[in-house]
Design a protein that fits this description.
12 strands, two-stranded antiparallel ribbon, single chain, 409 residues
């Protein structure tokens, strides 16, 4: 391993120092048990993440309620989950205690699966394609915020190092923050009203948990990529305007946020921007700009974690134009972007399903054994089909599930 490899330099996130700049992105995989607790398959996935030695690991899309969910076997964080989650955290930290383990708290909002639960909206006018979403009122938003606070307290009590407030990819936080939320109500209309939802949420959680060592951050959609989405100039504009995004992260930082995970697009709105694939891999380069916009706006000690690095692989296998493979891999861009102040860390989503052991294999000089993500997106199709999520290329169990799925399509 090269001494110039900045991906293996330590970094401090909040009050805790970790040994490298690799993060495992929150990858919802629909494999909880019937009560929303980690199942054997959940244990198996996260054991691989912890043994793979990434410095930062995010526990996926945990719901704080079950009225509005995106998958039938979504992890939950309510009083009934406290003991199983504590057992889960203790087990994983016995494998590796040198990382940061974050719980991503979420409400699926309009992304909720309509046959499993109910889609909801906060706008009088539904977003096109979501006409079946039910309009909710301010009292329901208050209840949802209370559920987030209770879940944050449980996360703290079971031993998580912190939480991620999910304000991205079409989930409830996105709905409230985006300019399309244009009608006047407590958290709608002007930007000052819309941003107040996120500000109130972090303030309530910080006060309730009351632990300076508990790390609070957020995954943010810098630009959603459709008219009226986050990062646009207005409710009917597709023009990219990052004023609100930058103002949001600065305001959250002032209220105690220690890190931000950059993302863009959304799974049901602008998937290719969110997860660039073989047909449009170059969308990934836009994420560098989004990461730099956050980095430039925040204090040096606030950590920026960049997304969408999986598509680069080892520089081979994905047809990028006008750039040589040796200057276009995950490790190349990770080190370059850290050196140039574009990001502090890189997060791997699909790649963590294909092979969670990149840091470990590099440390052990086994880089040639890395199983690189092929960007086939079979893992996404498994999730969309409400099947246990995983890599259908390298893992036989998920490959068999995917084969059966194709027969039934």
């Amino acid at each position: 391993m090269s001494a110039n490899n900045l991906l293996f330099s330590p970094i401090k996130v909040g009050e805790k120092e970790i040994p490298n700049r690799f993060a495992v992105n929150a990858m919802e995989c629909c494999d909880a048990d019937d009560n929303g607790n980690p199942s054997e398959k959940t244990y198996r996935r996260y054991e691989k993440y912890f043994e793979g030695l990434s410095g930062f690991i995010s526990l996926e899309a945990i719901t704080c309620q079950y009225d509005n969910i995106s998958s039938t076997k979504q992890l939950s964080l309510m009083p009934r989950n406290e003991k199983p989650m504590k057992k889960f955290v203790n087990h994983l930290k016995e494998l590796n205690e040198n990382n940061i383990f974050i719980f991503q708290l979420t409400h699926s909002g309009e992304v909720s699966h309509p046959t499993l639960s109910r889609r909801i909206r906060v706008t009088k006018e539904p977003l096109y394609g979501y006409e079946d979403a039910r309009l909710i009122d301010e009292s329901e938003i208050k209840t949802i915020m209370e559920q987030f606070v209770k879940a944050a307290i449980i996360a703290h009590d079971v031993g998580a190092d912190g939480i991620d407030l999910k304000l991205c990819t079409g989930y409830l936080g996105s709905q409230i923050l985006r300019p399309f939320n244009k009608h006047l109500w407590k958290y709608g209309g002007s930007w000052e009203r819309r941003r107040q939802f996120a500000f109130d949420l972090i303030e309530h959680i910080t006060k309730a948990v009351n632990d300076k060592n508990f790390i609070i951050g957020s995954k943010i959609s810098v630009y959603e990529g459709f008219p009226g989405g986050q990062g646009t100039a207005g409710p009917d504009s597709a023009l990219m305007d990052l004023f609100e995004t930058v103002d949001l992260v600065k305001g959250l930082e002032e209220r105690g946020a220690k890190y931000f995970v950059e993302t863009a697009g959304g799974p049901l709105h602008s998937l290719t921007l969110s997860k660039p694939d073989k047909s449009a891999p170059d969308y990934t380069y836009m994420h560098f700009y989004f990461q730099k916009a956050l980095k430039d706006a925040l204090k040096p000690e606030t950590t920026v974690i960049g997304s969408c690095y999986s598509i680069f692989r080892d520089g081979n296998g994905t047809k990028f134009k006008a750039v040589s493979p040796e200057n276009n891999g995950v490790l190349y861009w990770g080190n370059k972007n850290i050196k140039e102040g574009i990001t502090d860390m890189i997060s791997l989503g699909r790649q963590s399903l294909a092979d969670a052991s990149i840091p470990k294999k590099i440390i052990e000089n086994k880089q040639e054994e890395i199983k690189w993500c092929t960007a086939c997106d079979h893992c996404s199709l498994l999730l969309i089909s409400q099947k246990d999520g995983g890599c259908a290329v390298y893992d036989e169990a998920y490959r068999e599930t995917f084969r059966s799925l194709k027969i039934n399509l």
